[in-house]
Amino acid sequence: MKQQLTEPLVARLQDQPQSDPVPSFLITYLYVGHFLARWGTRMWDFSVGLYMINIWPDSLLFAAIYGAVESASTALFGPIIGHWVDRFPYVKVLRIWLVTQNLSFVIAGGTVMALLVYADLRVTNFYAFVFLIILTNISGAVGVLSTLAGTILVERDWAVVISEGHSPEVLTKINSVMRRIDLFCKLGAPVLTGLIISFVSLEASAFTLALWNTISIWLEYWLFTSVYKGIPALGESGQRKLSRSLESDQNKTRSNLLSSDDEDEVEISQESWIKRRIKQFSRIPYVSAWRVYLQQDVVLPGVALALLYCTVLRFGTLMTATLEWEGIPAYIIGIVRGVSAGVGIAATVVYPILQSHILTLRTGLWSIWSQWTFLLLCVGSIWVPNRVLSACMLMAGVGTSRLGLWMFDLAVIQQMQDQVPELERCVVGGVQSSLQSSMDLMGYVMAIIISNPQDFWKLTLVSFGVVTLAALLYTLHLYRVRKHLLHFEKLTPFLKCITRSQSANV
User: Fold this and answer.
1) How far apart are CA 165 and CA 146, in angstroms?
2) Rounded to an integer, what distance in angstroms lies between the CA atom of residue 473 and that of residue 305?
3) Judging by beta carbons within 10 Å of its beta carbon (0-12, 13-18, 19+), is residue 440 exposed, middle or buried?
4) pTM for the whole structure
5) Contact assessment for residue 238 and residue 89, using Cβ atoms and an 8 Å cutoff
6) pLDDT digits (tens, 9 = 90+) for 337-370
7) Which residue in 140, 297, 322, 333 is a FRET match for 426, CA 20 to 30 A apart?
8) Which of 340, 334, 443, 389 has the alpha carbon at shortest distance from 68?
């Protein structure tokens, strides 16, 4: 069994016979449950920047602080959450994830409503104002952490388990549809929330957020438990996880007993004492998770993907708040953000086609450099004197770059699913999310330092430099694996054909 757990997914798929197809209605349940969970999260992701810029006008400070708190919590607890998802039964993880996520966003919606209704609270009762701000930040961060647990469970683990025993195209399809659902939520939730904010009120959007999470939790739980009970492979994988967890605990107990016996001996060298302390330190879940991650062959693509989070060139909290400051109406921001998500949905359609022709590794290369190319439009917007035109160029560059971004995201995730052993899948997913949030945190720290919306151009240049670094890192990884970047032997006949046609014309 241990050998089976440590073999990469691709090797196991080649050796296993084809399994019976999973009932289509269960896959539909999985997709619908994923949609319900992501819709509430995307409503909060879009609206929190607008809430913060209205609570503290003419400054990105509150929006940046919230983003920093959210990113820091994920960066700090991401590996631990991945370790926790890997050790506990699926049903227990499912319950804790759904209850914590929905309850956190209900609390966040309630605190935001109080801050918006009592707009003069920071003058009349400053301590109550600070308490509500802190509660909003904490509840939002907890909601995002619980969302991370669900992402690791469903996207990184269940998707692979369900596709085992089937052709690789099954995993590609599941990944693409799951990402398409997420991007559709990024499209629909901002548009709906922006319309509510523009034509009703901010308070109404906060109430809608709280109401959605209160109602949807029950249906989400029923859908996911139906999937778990209806697909035997998930139950078998859960049993392997429990067995692995018990075996790991027994090994730790045995190791601790041996360490205690060794410490009772009188003659112990200084070197052996240091080695034991290093081993004990490496057993800490946070440290051991990072050690596992750094041993993977896909560490460079993972770092490249994480670097793309250290940027303000996306429709996140900071860019949304900046566009609001520029005078762009909330519903326009929501529509443009929705169009951007539509481009991302197109990426989930293009990715399987491109991947089937040039494979996953090269799909990632073409994707990240296409993102870099579209972001040149954002750099050019810095020198446009007209503020509205500049904002339009910024939004256009960010929106079109989503095509390359989400194809690159899918390419890296599939490389991790194919090459990371089952034994380490959830842990690596948790560390990857932690690394991405660390980069996200760095972006918010930059915004705290440069909090004036007039200086957003500085953040744009830094972000473009980070994307360039990510593209170079992935290019280096591809060269290390394939020992070349382009098939020059295939270009030679093409160049000869062009030369001949030019000679004929002359």
Assistant:
1) 30
2) 10
3) buried
4) 0.69
5) yes
6) 778 878 888 888 898 888 888 888 889 999 999 9
7) 140
8) 443
